[in-house]
What does this fold into?
Amino acid sequence: MANMNLGSRDVATTIHPYTNLKRHESDGPLVITEGDGVFVRGEDGKLYLEGLAGLWNASLGFSERRLAEAAYRQMLKLPSYHTFSHKAADIGIELADKLLSLAPAPMSKVFFVNSGSEANDTVVKLVWYYNNAIGRPNKKKILSRAKAYHGVTVASASLTGFPNNHRDFDLPIPNILHVECPHFYRFGQAGESEEAFAGRMAASLEQRILSEGPETVAAFIAEPVMGAGGVILPPSTYFEKVQDVLHKYDILFIADEIICGFGRTGNMWGCEAYRLKPDMITCAKALSAGYMPIGAVMVSEPIYEALVRQSEKIGVFSHGFTCSGHPVTSAVALETLKIYEQDDILSHVRRVSPRLQAGLRQFADHPLVGEVRGIGLIGAVELVADKPTKTPFPSVEGVGAFLTQRGHHHGVILRPMGDSIAFCPPLIISESEIDLMLERFSLSLEDTLAMVRERGLIEYASVPVLAK
Ligand SMILES: Cc1ncc(COP(=O)(O)O)c(C=O)c1O
It folds into this structure.
């Protein structure tokens, strides 16, 4: 096999996540071999601007030496250890301490994991354990939302609100329920204000809680900004109203900060952008700038106390991963948090993000663009077949995927979430790199307009031909 090219070897050897496996056999992969700042290099030498920071995670770009050196130093000192049965690695303690000091709401303890999915799976188990501990064995249902993304392990895929994450995987598991996706552009009614829509969403959440029986509903989980669902921002007053409902029925609030955490919105946490007061927080991705697989769950003091009581009763808290609190991932995460502070990444994001947000909004008048949305250094452009009626393209046409393929041609990597094109560049991106990303997106958008016209997917009459 060594004499085959890399792409063929990949097809021969690897199952790819979130990939049409049949198509991959004929199309093969885009093989990336190097990183440099906000760019990555393909095996053919071509440089691509990484408009999604990999998978929303490479917050410091692809060539931060301090992280490589932190990993190397730790590898030489203590390359592996664990946190089971009263053991700890010194560096993991430092990281837990730092994370708690940054938390957007009072948090008591940290539990380390290796991914966002593991963080959300852990949260589900903790909610159940907690309610058993405090004598509420029937309060077990967890509410998530349509189009939420919380991961792919058994419980977290159940929380995820996409049919394809459930279909033929025999999910969701019992006790996981989904309520509406609060996307005002898509689901707001004619004449309804954003606040009235938020009120309707909260009222419908309350109705669902009442019909399930509040004594059976344990928790509600939400991303402050829904990422993989298409970068959906909460409508104005949504979270205030939702949190009121949760308080009323003594329902825990879990904030999934796996994309929003560590500066993405121009705040350290999405919770700060939208004034969320969660009982538990999950984070991963930018915790290590995507350089190492690490995630964390933070829990409030009442939850921690209940865990202590229950583990005392049972004799042990039987949950944890071999690499929970791994010294090398911890060292890289700690160094990442230091860089955020020392380089004042938050101020940088606040300085450059208006360039991205204003730049994206320039596409609002484009014939293919239904909605432009975003905050900080995250955004999306939603493509539609008909602007006035917001009619989407038939999904079989793969219009969003076509645009991102053209993006590769023009040297930018973006991600289609259906026909919403997501932008989430490394936080270190400069204004001129933002301009370049948008320029390359613009070329890809024009190619897409030409394609949909050619395939007759939009009405010529309703779409002015853009002046050259
Ligand atoms: C909001 C959110 N939660 C959870 C996850 C799952 O994280 P992982 O892929 O590390 O398991 C993701 C991944 O994209 C995410 O965006």
